[in-house]
Write a structure and sequence with these properties.
The chain is an alpha/beta fold. The protein has a single domain, classed as Creatininase (Rossmann fold, 3-Layer(aba) Sandwich). It is built from seven helices and five strands, in the order βαβαβαβαβααα. A five-stranded parallel β-sheet has the order 1-3-2-4-5. α3 packs across α4.
């Protein structure tokens, strides 16, 4: 049985915490994706996959974070893209993470489908990861005191680096599509591949008949988008998430 955090009650939250159920956050954007894909494409891809994952694995889905450092690399300030500068965004998610840690969550995942080609370290991903490490480090100092790591209580730290007792594993940032999945299908921005996976998850959010409303090099391949390819991308992405979210 899976849960939605903002529709849950203290009993469900305590159950998730006591059983180390993954708390999963969709890290998305509001970004221009050509004339044929909806602005919430990146967020919707994650949300759609998490909805399917929740039917296969017990997880708690937290509210999505949609406004983010999407950048104006694709479209200018008039394109409809919402860009939050990196420093402001990092500070915001830092406080989100810190609140979740104080609440008692110890198995948090942020899943991203934006600028993650070949699992590259782009600004939004780096913001999440830096905010996560900051939040964890400060939480540990505030709750365990200065010198917590050097105390005898953490003498087994190196033996437990890969285990659940390693505090720096409390928050993980992962892509919807691993490098292996991308190599098996493809990855682009509003082209054949992204249009296909969005079409498979939310067909009403892709209108291929509008591709020619405005020409872009990055949308030229979108005319080849199809449900069959999208379903394959969804299947492989779900397998990746099933194995990565534990």
């Amino acid at each position: 049985m899976s849960f939605i955090l903002d529709k849950s009650f203290p009993k469900e939250v305590k159950y998730a915490q006591d059983n180390n159920i993954p708390l999963v956050i969709a890290g998305g954007t509001v970004e221009y994706h050509g004339p044929h894909c909806s602005y919430g494409c990146d967020t919707l891809v994650v949300e759609g996959l998490l909805e399917k994952l929740a039917k296969k694995k017990e997880i708690m889905i937290a509210p999505s974070i949609a406004y983010s450092p999407s950048s104006y690399a694709v479209g200018d300030k008039k394109s409809g893209t919402v860009h939050v500068p990196e420093k402001a965004f990092e500070e915001y998610v830092y406080y989100v993470f810190k609140s979740l840690l104080y609440a008692g969550f110890r198995n948090i995942y942020v899943v991203i489908h934006h600028q993650f080609e070949q699992e590259s370290e782009m600004p939004m991903t780096l913001c999440y990861r830096l905010a996560a490490k900051r939040a964890i480090m400060e939480y540990l100092e505030e709750t365990l005191g200065k010198g917590w790591w050097g105390s005898d209580n953490y003498a087994s730290y190196y033996e437990e680096l890969e285990g659940k007792n390693n505090p720096f594993n409390w928050i993980k940032v992962i892509p919807t599509m691993s490098k292996k999945v991308q190599d098996a299908t493809g990855y682009d921005h509003a082209g054949e591949f992204e249009s296909s996976i969005l079409m498979a998850l939310y067909p009403e959010c892709v209108k291929l008949e509008r591709i020619d409303d405005r020409k872009h090099w990055f949308t030229e391949s979108a005319s080849k988008a199809n449900i069959e390819l999208g379903k394959k991308m969804v299947r492989l992405s779900l397998n990746h998430l099933m194995n990565s979210i534990k």
